Amino acid sequence: MAGPHLPARLPGRRRAGARARARRDGRPLRAGDARLPRARPPGLLDARRRGARTLLRPRRGRAHRAGARARHRRGRGAARGPRVTLGRVVGHAGAAARLARAAAEGRVPAAVLLVGPAGIGKRVLADAFAARLLCAAPGTGGACGACAHCTRVAAGTHPDLHLVAREPERRDIRIEQVRELGRWLALQPLMAARKVAVLDDAHCLSEQAQNALLKTLEEPPGAAVLVLVASAAALLLPTVRSRCQVVRLDPLPVAEVVRVLEASGVPARQARELAPLAEGSPGRALALAGEAETRARARVLQDLPRLRELGADELSRTAQELSRGALDAGLATALAWYRDVLETALAGDAAPLRNPAAADDVRRAARHLSPAALLRQLEAVYATIVALEKNANRMLAVETMLLSLRAIERGASAAQAPPWKSAR
Hints:
Blueprint: H1 18-25, H2 42-49, H3 62-75, H4 93-104, E1 111-115, H5 122-134, H6 148-155, E2 161-164, H7 175-186, E3 195-199, H8 207-218, E4 224-230, H9 238-242, E5 245-248, H10 254-263, H11 268-274, H12 282-287, H13 291-303, H14 312-324, H15 327-347, H16 359-368, H17 371-389, H18 394-414, H19 419-422
Parallel strand pairs: 1-4, 1-5, 2-3, 3-4
């Protein structure tokens, strides 16, 4: 009944619902009448017959869509936030200060190339620099870490930060990735004053990808900065290098490597043992800190001092254990061992050792091996590393290396000792 606050019912035919239409036609209620999919859990249709309301999909708002886009970017490798700021970068204070000064003075180049050995912290510096460029309230030490930009950078959801890296199971960066990067850089920033892209492992760019990147470097977008990270600048085209501001990073001192290892949770004693083996690379030192790496190092330090005494079966077992385990750690330990022996043979017992625990074995080997033989053994280890980088069979490469090392050592032992050794 109509009242003062209720409108009167308008004249006209009342629309029949799905149940009324089915009753009028003398047939059972069908899923199509209720506008439901054919494949539906049986309980839902029963609920509709009892008069329950249709379950509707909730509407997705702007925040939900933004989160979905961010999750998609994270899934394809969006850049994560820096663990440190420019002011707290370990071992590269000069390079970090140079980048911070360029950002503060508004002299940021369109492309920056960070060059240095693998594992020394180039990517850490690149992430810290990218965060500084996007930060809304930067300080003298880099990004503030508290603004909306820094929060999104740390979460990997900043719309103006992009990462290009090698895809899993690939040895190079595809040209399609570079073309996508060029299209992304051409767009206007969505949140910050500029867009920043980090191209990790730039030395892995194929020649076609470098040519595609060259078009972006020749005509850089006005509001975009590209940060390239490379371990081997010689693999980049000269035209690519010439269009970037090159920042060279050197290996870290042993004390700095120890500091990084301890900050990463490595025990102090183990950090002091691993730092000399890393050749100034904290990343390499961290890679040697695992259990498998520790076993590989122990096996190498056990077998190399008595290599000329090993039989074929024992040598094959050593090769099998190394090839199935942490081979990189084993090869790094072998390089450090032969360098210790070579330096001891040339400089005497005063030479600093990378493996102090094996000092007696190192001095014993230095007394009967000549520098020429040690150089040949180092070349054999390096040749194995190069062969493995070209996808050689691991077991065959390691066994061939051990046979070569043993043959060189047996030949050096049979030869007459040099005169400077007999004078000791």
